């Protein structure tokens, strides 16, 4: 896989887009607005510049795949099973922040939630834990490494034929129906969270990604964000969620409707810079 494609892989996973908004649509300093730099050791792992860093004396980090306000994802080599994996590492500075426990609970909850789910169109979790390096604590999740690109990248580069679009959408809906049957609402469906790989016959195999802000009705701690704080991506937020802050399966249905329209027409119904008052 070439370097440019490598950089796109798992961008959606690392992005973990939790945008926090006030009642007026402002962003009063959320996860993406700390203005802090990465831990000096983790920061050495720049794209194309792998460092000899190992986790749990097992996973050797190779290069960065994507980074966001909450975590960074690396391609890594599993020394025990001799295979590539994806390692998602929480930004260490978040554990020095005021809401340290909330960040840790959220990260752990995401790992436990995805590990509980078992479906052909969900990437499995292999391991999670805490990592201490040179006095700084952080958390990590080890997941299946996927070779491909997200739907957002595909739509930017080409207009998909209808038959291919329908196959991608059907696979995504299968995963969505499954997580709903397990009491989970994704809450952040968008093209960048739908990842496309190819199977051994060259056919699309779709993965539903990024459960960082998912709502789990089976978990008493399933909602870890403050009352009155919206989490997600404005461009795909349904009006009832904006107004009532209720995370029900209808949120995912609304978001899938926008994704289907965008995939079929190549045009997003709602502009990406849409603000809360506009919704």
List the helices and strands and how they pair.
Elements: H1 3-8, H2 11-15, E1 53-55, E2 59-67, E3 71-78, E4 83-90, H3 100-116, E5 125-133, E6 136-144, E7 148-150, H4 151-157, H5 162-181, E8 184-185, E9 194-198, E10 204-208, E11 215-216, H6 239-244, H7 249-265
Antiparallel strand pairs: 1-2, 2-3, 3-4, 4-6, 5-6, 7-9, 8-11, 9-10
Helix pairs in contact: 5-7
Written description of the protein model:
Mean pLDDT is 78; it is low at 1-52. The strands form 3 sheets. A 6-stranded antiparallel beta sheet has the order 1-2-3-4-6-5. A 3-stranded antiparallel beta sheet has the order 7-9-10. Strands 8-11 form a two-stranded antiparallel ribbon. By secondary structure, it is α+β, with helices and mostly antiparallel strands. Helix content is 28%, strand content 23%. It has helices at residues 3-8, 11-15, 100-116, 151-157, 162-181, 239-244, 249-265; strands at 53-55, 59-67, 71-78, 83-90, 125-133, 136-144, 148-150, 184-185, 194-198, 204-208, 215-216. It contains 7 helices and 11 strands.
Main features:
alpha+beta; about 280 residues; disordered N terminus; three-stranded antiparallel sheet; six-stranded antiparallel sheet
